[in-house]
Amino acid sequence: MFTGIIEEVGSVKEIVRSRMSIKLSISCIKILDGVSIGDSIAVNGICLTVTDIGGRYFSADVMPETMRKTGLEKLKITDRVNLERALRLSDRLGGHIVTGHIDGTGIIIDREEEDNAILLTIQADGKVLKYIVMKGSVALDGVSLTVAYVDSRRFKVSLIPLTAGETNLGSKRTGDRINIECDIIGKYVEKLIKGDTSEQSIKKDISVDLLMDNGFI
User: Is 30 contained in some domain?
Assistant: First the structure.
């Protein structure tokens, strides 16, 4: 679990590409404090497992499923990435509950400076947008933000100067792809309301004839 409060902006040190996966090495300093092999670090909002640690970097293996669902495929050497270590139970929850499991990606279609803030407009798929609610929480490249506007095709978030300066979001431009994780609470509520698909299937198979044949009627 993470909070969406970025601890450090690192940079891509090395990318070793296989046919469908990559080994990613990230240059950083602060984020390495207290980290061991096997720990989780969110890289642009994606929960990755540390497989190697150097003096000023760590490495992680990225599997094909993660490559399909996130924007890691577009990363290049020296690209800046948002980093956050996993949440400890004693930590303050300064953002919101972030799992590091990306729901999809979006495209920045507008960037507007609004006094001291930067307003980003994100175009996303309907499967993602259905979980985005006005004034709700969303994590963009791992950054916990509040939704300022949403409709059937897009949503907007506003960056204060601190967020723009301390994360990679301040340097994002129109056309850039961004990782989106929706608030997990909405997904749990939807699951509870709709019920489990397999359970529904079982219920549909129960008929009057079936009950009579088995002596229940």
Answer: yes
Same domain, 178 and 133: yes
Q: pLDDT (tens digit, 9 = 90+) per residue, 174-205?
A: 999 999 999 998 888 888 888 755 544 445 55
Q: Domain range holding 34?
A: 8-85
Is residue 121 located within the same domain as residue 184?
Answer: yes
Q: Is-contact 148 154, C-beta < 8 A?
A: no
- Total domains in the chain come to 2
The pTM of the full predicted model, rounded to 2 decimals, is 0.86
